[in-house]
Structures are given as C-alpha cells and as structure tokens.
Amino acid sequence: MATSPENFHDHRLDFRAPPPSPIATGRRSSVTNDDVLADFLEHSLRVPDLILPDRVFPRQRSVDAPPRIDFQALDSKETDSVARILESFSGTGCFQLVNHGIPCNLIRSVTAAAAGVFRIPPEKKAAVSRSQEKIYGFEEIHEEEEEEKTEINSEEFVWCRDENLKLEMEGIWPLAYSDFSEKMEILLSDIEKVASNILFVLKENSSKILNFGNDIIPEQEVMGTICHLYKHYKNASTDRWAGSLRYDVIRMLIRGFDCSHSLCLHICNESSEFHIYSKKGWISFCPDKDALLVTIGDQMQAWSGGQYKHVIGRPIFKGENHKDYKDCISMAFLYSPPTISSKSSNVIIKSEKTISLGHQAILAILLSLAYYFLVYIYKKF
Fold it and tell me: Which residues are within 8 A (CB) of 282 and not within 5 positions of it... i.e. 6 or more apart?
C-alpha cells in the first residue's frame, strides 16, 4: 500500500540544531575584559617590597677598655673592687685583672710549649679531633675554609684533665706532650686559685645579687676547668677576623655551650684587640699588657637571674707588632667550680641539700603519729 505524502510528513523526526554560539558585536568589550584581567593579575602576583636588615650580626663598635681590677686588693674593705666588677658585668660583661700573681715566665713557657701542639701533622691531629662524645681535642676546620687553608684565622685545641686525652696525645706526640701537660697543670692550678678567689669575694659581698648554687646548674653538667688554646694568624683581614667570631657565635647557638662555666679567664699574650659578643652588641677594645681578661659564663648568668649575660670573648692579633704568627697564641680557661662552700683554697661552691615538700609532709605525719603514740602510752601506764 502506497504511503501518501501526508502520512510521511506526520512521521518525520523532530530534530532541532543547537543554538549558535554568541559572537561579540565588537572588539571594545574584549579589550576591556583583557585590561581588567591584566590589572587583576598585576596586583595579585606583585611581590611585596621587603626591607631586610643589612646584616644578622650587629655592627662592631670600639669602646674604652673595661676597668682594671687589682687582684691583691680584691677583698680589701678600702676599695670598691666588687662594685666595679658588678658594674662591668652589667655593661660589657668583662673586666681586666692585674697584679694577679701568675708569673709571666710561666705563661711564656706554656705558650712556647703550646706552639708545638699546633705543629703536629694534620693526619695525626685528625686522630684526636673533637666530637659530641669528647670535649677535648683539635677543632675540625670549617668546610668553607678548606680551600683557603693558608688563611684560616685560628686553629683550636681543647685541653683538660682527662686520662683519655693523655693517652691519645701521647700516641701522636709522645716525646713532648708530658712536658706540655705538666706546665699546663701548674698554670691551670694558678688560674683556678685566682678564679675561686674572685667568686668567693663576689659571694661574700653580693649575696643578695648573685644567688650562688641552689641546684641551678645540674651536677652532671659540671666538667671542671678546661682550656681552649688558639693559634692565630696575622695575615687574616679584618673581615676574616669578624667572620671567625661570627662562626664561633653561630656554633655556640647551634651546639649550645660545650662546657658550662661561671667565669672565663683569657690570657691574650699582648693581643692587638679583644672582641666581645653578646645579645647587647659587639664591642672591641685594646687590652692592657699582661692583664687577664675575665668574662661572664652561663653559670653566672643563672646565679644572677639573668641580670648578667653570658658573653663570648676572643683576642685578635694583627698589625706589624706580630710578625711571627707562631707566637700568636692565646688561652681561654673556662672555670667551673664543682661545689659551693663558705671558703676553700681550691673549691668555693657546694650544692645545698634540700628536702622536698613531699618528704616534709611524710615527716610531719610520722612525727604526729609518734606524738600520739607516746601520749597513749603515757596515759595508759
């Protein structure tokens, strides 16, 4: 049966094409949108202008030399030595000690013997290098300084009364170490007597300011007196001297204190300058000849409740006065008294034993029970 045209028209599919995409009527609208987008990106992606400090460390400034304290008149009632020491501690954290009684010949003898320590070949020094496990030995050269090894500001060797150090040093320096160690022992004994007398006088005359002891410094952290020996080079520039001190400060901040100490006594051997770094700033001055430089340690900061701040001090050798760099050797003695007591020629600080509140409560209960028990026995019999 044939299909009529009318029936075909009625059965057609209802198909509709999608609407056409909108077309901009002109370029003006497109340009306007681009300007808005560019302005938005410019403001959102703009890096702010940061004002950074010129340097992390403060600028070095020269100051007058700290006061000269006569050691022989330290405990005299007629002098104001204690007040001047405390005033210098509040200011620079350092004072100069003269007339200390340590023979100059002994210092020169130890300095000459110490020069031999730094002449030990590098491969042997590596066998007695410092580490986290041992505080003594040679300080490793900083990696950034390896390529310019001839211009290193200083070499460092840490000496202390340790049998392991003695055995290791006798293994690499068998002939001369015993002589060097004996001289160091004599000098160290004199240094300890001087430091202990300083602390005793401060304890007797400033007990309200310095709260000595009271378990502020844990007993296991007390390492005794150690000595840092430095060999300085005269050819280093001022910037490299500054870099050396900055490196020492950064190393201290990262590693903490290698050895807790109350005072540090510096033998500068006629250094050109003495630099001190603390949170208050970075200062330098010209020390007096043959004077001991005394700086504050972390124990003194704890005893004073933070009133006196721990500082770092370093002597600087430069100029034509030090033509022979082998003689440019300084020593820093970190003195840490082991106990607190009233007075002793060698030891002045001795930890006081305290009874905790819990033990006091238990003791009170036991005494009360004993009292009632005795009353009961008395009434009954």
Answer: 57, 58, 59, 60, 61, 245, 275, 276
DSSP 355-377: --HHHHHHHHHHHHHHHHHHHHH
Distance (Å, whole) CA 228 – CA 331: 6
Is 111 in contact with 329 (CB distance < 8 Å)? yes
How do residues 139-178 score in pLDDT, each as one tens digit? 865 444 444 444 445 789 999 999 999 999 999 999 899 9
Residue type, 144: E
Please report how many Cα atoms fall inside a 13 Å half-sphere around the Cα of residue 301, on the Cβ side: 17
Euclidean distance between CA atoms 204 and 225, whole angstroms: 22
> Do residues 104 and 98 touch, judged by C-beta distance below 8 A?
no
Query: Residue 335: helix, strand or coil by DSSP?
Result: strand
Q: How far is it, in rounded angstroms, from Cα 181 to Cα 83?
A: 37
Tokens of 85: 């020491």
Alpha helix (H) ranges present in the chain?
5-10, 27-44, 81-91, 104-117, 122-125, 163-172, 177-205, 238-255, 298-303, 357-380
Q: How far is the CA of 180 from the CAs of 25, 115, 173, 245, 326, in angstroms?
A: 97, 10, 10, 27, 16
How many residues in the chain?
381
CB 126 within 8 A of CB 341: no
**Residue 154, token pair as written in the block:** 């200083």
Provide DSSP, 55-108.
Answer: -SSPPEEE-PPPPEEEGGGTT-TTS-HHHHHHHHHHHTSEEEEES----HHHHH
In which band, very low, low, confident or very high, does the pLDDT at 351 lie, cut at 50, 70 and 90? very low
> What 8-state DSSP symbol labels residue 233?
-
Distance from C-alpha of 36 to C-alpha of 33, rounded to nearest angstrom: 5
25 versus 69: which is more confidently predicted? 69
Q: What are the C-alpha distances in Å from 347 to residues 149, 223, 336?
A: 42, 14, 10
